[in-house]
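Repro case for the chain-ordering regression, as requested:
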Amino acid sequence: MEMIRASELVYEYEQRDDEGNVVGMNRALDEIELDVRPGQFVVILGHNGSGKSTLAKHMNAILVPTGGTMWVNGRDTKDPRELMNVRQSAGMVFQNPDNQIIGTVVEEDVGFGPENLGVPTEEIWRRVEDGLRAVGMIEYRAHSPNKLSGGQKQRVAIAGVIAMEPECIVLDEPTAMLDPDGRKEVLRTVQELRKRKNVTVILITHYMEEAIDADAIYVMEGGRVVMQGTPREIFGRVDELKRYRLDVPQVTMLAEELRRRGLDIPRGILRREELVEAICRLS
Amino acid sequence: MSIKLEHVNYIYSAGTAYEKQALKDVSLEILPGQFVGVIGHTGSGKSTLIQHLNGLVKANSGVIYYNGENIYADGYDMKSLRGQVGLVFQYPEHQLFEEDVLSDVCFGPKNQGLSKEDCEKRAFEALELVGFPEKYYHQSPFELSGGQKRRAAIAGVLAMKPKVLVLDEPTAGLDPAGRDDILDQVKYLHDQTGITVVLVSHSMEDIARYVERIIVMNRGEKMFDGTPKEVFAHYEELEQVGLAAPQVTYVMHDLKARGIPVDTTATTVEEAAEEICRALKR
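-- result from build under test --
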């Protein structure tokens, strides 16, 4: 069974004028098909306003489809009786760490989720400890979140999600406000979780470099999925990506530039070592 | 329009448990018309540094000269300095507040005491300079896309006709094309008007592409100051302080290690491609 599955998913909302009269419908998501298997790492790319955050919000029922269906761990998100189960299956991490930390002490913040799920106190403490260990923040358990760096705050937010023991984590531009070090920190944490706990990861990002290890990439434009494939397939299509206001990793760009200058370099190069290897073969 | 810092020190929350020296003995000079990049790890002091440039934060010791005048001297016109050194904060769109874009951009010049006509003239110029589409001039700034909001916010600073434009991570949160658009526009502005630009960025690739000089901050101190080629040649030291060189610079070093006779100083895709083709004699 898929962890996340969307079939003919449509999300429309009413457009209203100043008096509140409905003047039309806006289609933010248009016939989305999506299949994510357990343990996969899936990246969603798309420019600002392409619909990727709206799609992410469907993955833990912050929004529900107005047409078609979204299943999370086999549960239809439209069914109100499944709401808690859906939210427990798919945890969300958002862009701004300051908007999602509520506790005055790190461990209190991490315990907030399981507490709301009605988890017994002892079990909460176990999960808090487990979550903080998983993100490497255990020594900060008694600290105030205010004094943490952006990357550390995001790791606390991720620990809070882990403490709810979801099968799937959806990260909506978790590194957008972080410096390169903070970005690395957060991504490493996510990858380790995937390995150790086999959590499914869905990452929405504007940084192409973060997508090169994905099992699959979906590219969105105008509320639709316009490209779908492995990183090698997707980043081999440089011109098409640029049309969708996206980019490729700088190494891929250099490979492309060398190809344009007539060098025999294969398409879809993603990593430094691959490019160096390809160039050395020519000399 | 040079800005000169001499032995500037700044300490946050002095005398409390949170006391932190944010700037340590920083001396540097930004020359008229330069396009300067500032890089550094979070907490390196780069934001504190740029807040000194228009007197927003006052150094505990040391002197700052704007055009040869000590800005800390008695009777120095701080208000005029703030008009001349325009600071665009991170996420400047959070500071938009007026009913429509045009009024928002007029706010700065209005406070400088200009007439309504002059304010609007300045606003039109500024909006045009940042490539803001005319059809949205009378729209609420809150209905714009992320990229357009940011343009409007930058225009609000440009409308005060600063001689120096300081941008703190102007591309954070934008998609790749949005990032290129904003930086291309800043570059265009720099080339057209000769304005001095100070750009703070986390993207080494962007910095390498646009600036002529890089100042690297680390733990409140100036660590390096030079051209992109000079600074990124220290890529190993940069990594130790949580920074890096652009990806292509690493490719060049790898190639050299594999015996390909390339010069390793390339910092942009074009330079790297050029150099690789030369080394392979293609």
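Ordering looks correct now. The CA atoms of residues 108 and 114 of chain B lie 9 Å apart.
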